[in-house]
Amino acid sequence: MRCIILLLGLLVTVGACANQPPNTAPDPRPIGTIRLRAGWQSTVVAERVDTIALMLPSGERQLQHSSQRASFTVTVAANGAVTAHLDSTTSTPPDSGDGAPDILALGRRLVPTVLARGIEPRSNWVDSASETARTGVFTVKERRTVGWSAGVERNQTVPIRAREDFEQVGGGQRYTTQMTYTSNGSRSDVYSVKTDGTMAAGTLVDSVTMTIGFPGSREVVSGIRVSRTVIRFIPVRGAP
Known about the structure:
By secondary structure, the protein is mainly beta. It has one domain. Helix content is 8%, strand content 57%. It is built from 2 helices and 9 strands. Strands 3-2-1-9-8-7-6-5-4 form a 9-stranded antiparallel beta sheet. It is elongated and about 55 Å long.
């Protein structure tokens, strides 16, 4: 049992924000007036707080808290493609290293993928996808459906929202211990996009129900993870 608790302390608390956002685009329609400005560059600070409630095989309940701060440099190419370079990251408690895939996945959620094409205020659309993803030490098959919507312009800013429902099945290994992983949950993202093609801010909220199995001992740990990430954009001086 002590081994299970130790493993969970090392891998579950860093298993956050683990999945790549769907490669979505609006259904064919006239190109909107809102899109990312070519050549725009910004420093992005993302601060995340996780709360995890676990049910151990003994019936004991365990509550875990963790936080993470990551800094990225986001650059928009001439064709609208977005790259996010991870500059630094810190975690509390200190990260064991298993969270690296999750940090990189967070980088892909900093900016709505639909902005590469351009969108219109008051528009909405739905898409779905299935692919292999990483969450903490686990490799999973993920199926998801995401609904996008663009709100009404106010003070030269348009809100863009994404609601994503997903399920994951997979497994992984920590040292010599094999584990299975299943989860289902939802993600709600809200972005503030300026009409000049730059980003202002964002908030990402994940709620996940998960089950971790240990085939060697036939023990199972279940849990619920709620994560909230606040994103701030700091324009780079001299950038367009």
